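User: Hey, quick favor. My workstation is busy. Could you predict this chain's structure for me?
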Amino acid sequence: MTYATRIRRRVAPYVSGDYAEKQEQHLLSSAVCNNEDLGPFIRKVFATGKPDWLLYQLRNFSRSKESEIEDICKAHYQDFILAVDDLRSLLSDADSLKSSIHHSNSTVQSVAVPLLSSLHSLIEARNISVNIKLAFNSVLSCVKVMDFCSRANLHLSGNNFYMALKCVDAIEGEFLDKIPSLTLQKMLQRKIPEIRSYIERKVSKEFGDWLVQIRAVSRHIGQLAIRQASAARQREEDLRIRQREAEEQSRLSVRDCVYSLQEEEDDDGVLNSGAEAGSNSDNGEFVFDLTQLYRAYHIHRTLGLEDRFKQCYFENRKLQMISDFQVSSITPFIESHQTFLAQIAGFFIVEDRIMRTSGGLISKLDVENLWETAVGKIRSVLEDQFSKIQIASHLLLIKDYVSLLGVTLRSYGYPVDALLDVLRKHRDKYHVLLLSDCQKQIADVLSAEKFEQMLMKKEYEYSMNVLSFQLQTTDIVPAFPYVAPFSSTVPDCCRIVRSFIEDSVSFMSYGGQLDFYDVEERYLDRLLSDVLDGALRRIINTYVHGVSQAMQVAANMEYFERACDFLFHHAAQLSGLPARMVDRRRRQFPLQRARDAAEEVLSGLLRTKVDGFMMLIENINWMADEPPQSGNEYVNEVIIYLETVASTAQQVLPIYVLKRVLQNLLSHISEKIVGALNSDTVKRFNVNSLMGFDVDIRLLESFVDNQASLFSSAEPSEMKDALSEGRQMINLLLSDHPENFLNPVIRESSYSALDHRKVLTISEKFKDASDGLFSSFGTRGSRQNLKRRSLDILIKRLKAAN
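Assistant: No problem, here it is.
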């Protein structure tokens, strides 16, 4: 039964039966039991006017609680009485235990006294043992320290610094703080820094000695490396020459190809020879001693000075590199350039090896920075020296060595395009100097020209002067002595041009540009078109005074043309361009102006000679009674001379040149005939003199027919066309209808070579002469009247047109 139930039962007689009062009584009881605020109840009873009821309920609640308290106190008193009884029994047991313990303690003490004396003896013996052990360990520690010190001294005396440092580090790390001897400890603390400082000074001195030694070694290494690159280039060039020869044989004659077994050269030959000298290893790498450097680096790293040593190494090597760029102002650069460039090559070969094998002494970035600095210095030196050089061969020698330097260092991974740019930049200057040298050589050759056919007494002379430039007209070797159709100028100039090609290709080869034939072709064309052509024209216009000389020069032009084809092919082959690609290119003969000048001089000399014979025209009777049956006197002399010229020229000149020369002469003769009729010295002429000129022209045409065997079927008619002006003028004046000249169609087909002013002048002279002639033939008056009338119409129309 709960506390609330007991309360309700006790207050039930005093509560009215009203349900609301019971409910309030219950709420009040709950509030008091729960220690809630009774303010709401108090306010309510005062508000309803029933405070007594509240007091009554509170008293009842108090009485009910008092009884409960009483019950609880009774229960607790009984428990207290029981606890007191238990405590009294416990005190009795404690007294018994105390007496038992006292008895046991007496027994234990009587037994333990002998054991305690033994224990004290044992502890004293143990302490003595510990002290002895500590002393022994201290002695052992000192012995070990002294052993390490002895070994350190031994290593120092043997310059084995790394092991000495390891001993010192072992002493400092393992024993220094544990050494029982204070004196020994202080001595070691003072000596260890001194030992390290001593080792640092020694290895720094060794490093300095290595820097001095490696400078000389680098130069030797660079020379060997460049020599190997040169040997490899020469082997490659020999292989390319053999390949070109095979291609040429295959191109010229497929059936006559020559096959041979080519022994492969041992690529390690040069390397092995260098290895025997102690400069190369078996795998082709250069052998040089880096022990001192690696030792110094290792010692500094052991000392904890790695970064400082790296900086020291980099700065010293950079200073060495900069000092290597000091070019002597006393020694010409052409004499010192190989040593200069070899030093640079060796420097960076050494740096590459150190970068790959030192374990971080110098980084790839540091090497690249050194190379960039070196490239800038090299470019500056080369540009300065190139600007001073005025000899093409010197420029070529330096270029070759620079390109070998580039090939050598490119194999070690260094970018060399910037160096090759310097060579490309001075390419034009080199060719200007080379052209100047060739111009002087050509001038010397031409100044010694004797305008005589070249005599060759031996086969080697024929091979050297004819076959080497493909000037032969047949594959059959002639009998010796052999007289060539050209003079010595041709092969001499060809040799100069070939040398120019080889030097030019040599300069542009291995310069970073693979396809340079177009550039080479431009320089070659400049040499031929400007230098050689200009020199030939100066010689032609200055020193050629005889027909035989002019013929020889004109004959030389044909062989120059053959030689030019060979020279362009030769340039293409050296430039690596296949011959079939060159054959596809159509180019104009570069010596065309010189050839035209030679033919013009020859024609001029021949015209001068012919003009001497043509002066016999003055002896013609312009009013002859009868036409000459065998032509006029001058034409016979001219034809004799032409036959002489033709027979001589066909032994020297090419047929097409002979044709042009004869055609030019015939045209000149035709102009002279027409000019004679048109001259002021001839006032009138008759038909008989005109018919004499007709015979002259027929004789000249007969001369052309006699030479027809020398030419093709169409060429004689072309040569006769050179006489067209004279032939058409005679035909016009002898025709029955001269006025047909006024018909454009007829004039174009039959009189295209005539000038209407000359026709007018000559027709007037012929008219005046024909009046007397027509009056003496009465039976033919009508025909003559028609011709005269036609001629009058022609003259009248021409005058009106003028």
